[in-house]
Amino acid sequence: MHITAEISYYPLVDGYDQPVFELLELLEEHPQLRVEPGTMSTLIAGEYDAVMLLLSQSMKTLMANYPSVFNLKIANACEVK
Fold it and tell me: Structurally, what CATH architecture does the domain formed by 2-75 represent?
């Protein structure tokens, strides 16, 4: 099943740009997924298992290093074109 996820990341630290760049690097490492960074959120599209694994691993990595808030939307009816 193909899904699209929208993720917004709010690191609760001074110098918040560094953790945001770390998230983008983690997301863009996956060649099988489509990643479209935006101003306030990033879209990730691909097969369900691959998207969910990438989200889980990326969020866990950042939460281990920074106090974090993530906002996610996941749909199987809103395809990124």
Answer: 2-Layer Sandwich (3.30)
